[in-house]
Amino acid sequence: MVANPTMVFPHHGAEKAAATSGKLLAVENVNLEYRTRERIVRATHDVSFDVYGGDRFVLLGPSGCGKSTLLKAVAGFIEPRAGSISLDGERVRGPGADRIVVFQEFDQLPPWKTVVQNVAFPLRVAKKLSKAEAHQRALHYLDKVGLAAFANAYPHTLSGGMKQRVAIARALAMQPRVLLMDEPFAALDALTRRKMQEELLRLWEEVNFTLLFVTHSIEEALIVGNRVLLLSPHPGRVRAELNSHQYSRDSFGRADFQRSVARIHHLLFDQTDAVQ
Ligand SMILES: Nc1ncnc2c1ncn2[C@@H]1O[C@H](COP(=O)(O)OP(=O)(O)O)[C@@H](O)[C@H]1O
Ligand SMILES: [Mg+2]
After folding, report:
1. Can you give the residue ranges of the ABC transporter domain (predicted)?
2. Are residues 116 and 212 in the same domain?
C-alpha cells in the first residue's frame, strides 16, 4: 500500500513546478532479482517512480531493501525481471554515458592517474573529446568542487571527502542526463558528511543537474532530496513518496524536521503489516 504523499508533508505545487521540467526517468512496476545456484533473491517488488528534470530524487530505505540494485538497474548493469525503465522515453538496455554512478567507496579512482587525468579520461573515451578539451573541462569541474589546486595530485594523497569530490567532478564533467549516487557520503565522518551534503546542494544550484540519490539515512534523504521515495524492508516496495524540498542543512535540530524524521522512521519500521 502506498501512503498518500500529502500525509507527511504538504504539497507545495508552485515550488515543485519551478524546480522541475519534463519527465526524464520512468521506472515502472520493476521487479529485480538475483539468481544464485541455490535460490532466487527478490531485491525489489513492483517499484514505480518518475524522476523529472532538475529533481533531487532520493531512494530511502533500510539496508538490504534493494536501493543499490535499483540504482544498478537504472545504470543498466542489471535487467529487470519485470517492468521497465526508460530514460527520455527510451527503454534502458545497458550502461551509457547518459547515466553516471558515484559510489560509496573511496577507491573508485585509478591510483596511477592524477586527479585531473582521472576526470579527463572518461571524457576522452566516452565523449571523444580531444586531450586539450578534456583537460579544460576536467579543470572546470574540479574548480566547481573546490579542487582546482589539487589537479596534479594523486588520489592516495587526498582525504576521503576529497576523493568523493573528484568522483563527483568526474561524473558531472560527463554531463549525464541523470547523476546516480549510491550512499556517496556513508563512509565519511559525520562532520565531513554534513559538509558534503551542503556542497552537493550548492553544486546542484550552480550546475543544474538531475540527481537520483540512494541513502539509508532519513536525515540525509530530507536534506539532499526534493522528493523522497520510501522503500520497505527486503524486498523493497514503495511505501510512500514525500516532498522534502522545504528542508536544507539549516533544518537539523528544528522541531518540524525532527517530527518528519520520526514520522518517516515510523513509516519505514513500525508498520510492516501495511506492506502486504
Ligand atoms: N550479487 C548478489 N547476489 C545475490 N543477492 C544479492 C546480491 N546483491 C544484493 N543481493 C541481495 O539483494 C537484496 C538487496 O540488496 P541491495 O540492493 O544491495 O540493498 P541496499 O542497497 O538497499 O542495501 C539484499 O537482500 C541482498 O542480500
Ligand atoms: Mg546499497
Report:
1. 27-258
2. no
